[in-house]
Design a protein that fits this description.
Layout lengths: L1 E2 L8 E2 L4 E2 L4 E4 L1 E3 L4 E2 L4 E4 L11 E3 L4 E2 L4 E4 L5 E3 L4 E2 L4 E8 L4 E2 L4 E7 L4 E2 L4 E3 L7 E3 L4 E2 L9 E2 L2 H24 L4
Parallel strand pairs: 1-4, 2-5, 3-6, 4-7, 5-8, 6-9, 7-10, 8-11, 9-12, 10-13, 11-13, 12-14, 13-15, 14-16, 15-17, 16-18, 17-19
Antiparallel strand pairs: 18-20
């Protein structure tokens, strides 16, 4: 479902993207080409700052927002999801937040007030709160990163994780195309 926010902003979705009919996109949201947005995802740009301003939520080309993901932002802050990026099932991305290109965010992970650099992998059940993750870094499942976390203990992304991330992106781009073909058959 696409709908306006109280300010009157309406989502813009590229014609090659697929948004599942159960997903909700509200407000100042821009969805790039070949994006797949799965069932029950919620992408909501409706809060404003103290001056009534709002930055957009942007989903980059060839990315996927999987089942049950929530993307929102406090006080109209920007949220950007880069190109060729996967946000896996039931994750929460809460702005202000920027997720780079070719990033994988695993199941049930939570991102808030952070930047995740290009080519990073954040595995399942991680929390990143108030600390940036540099390009190419790898967080193993259930890692918690806060402002006090020493990043020198983190490792770079192993080749197997990079290959997995790329396969998830490829699968979901294919799904976006396939669902667009059959969308009027439901």
């Amino acid at each position: 479902m696409l709908r306006k926010n109280p300010r009157g902003d309406y989502p813009v979705v590229h014609e090659t993207a697929f948004v599942d009919p159960t997903a909700v996109l509200c407000g100042l949201v821009t969805v790039g080409e070949h994006v797949f947005i799965g069932p029950y995802a919620v992408i909501r740009a409706d809060e404003v700052d103290e001056d009534g301003g709002m930055e957009p939520i942007i989903i980059g080309a060839n990315s996927n927002i999987q089942d049950g993901v929530v993307i929102h932002s406090k006080d109209g802050a920007a949220v950007t999801i880069g190109e060729h990026t996967s946000i896996a099932h039931r994750s929460i991305v809460h702005g202000p937040c920027k997720v780079g290109h070719h990033v994988f965010i695993g199941f049930n992970s939570v991102l808030f007030n952070c930047v995740v650099g290009d080519n990073a992998v954040v595995r399942h059940n991680c929390v990143v709160d108030g600390h940036d993750i540099p390009e190419g870094f790898y967080l193993t499942s259930a890692t918690v990163v806060t402002g006090a976390t020493d990043l020198s203990v983190l490792q770079s992304v192993p080749q197997s994780a990079r290959e997995f991330s790329e396969s998830v992106v490829h699968t979901n781009v294919t799904l976006a195309q396939a669902y667009r073909r059959i969308q009027n058959e439901f």
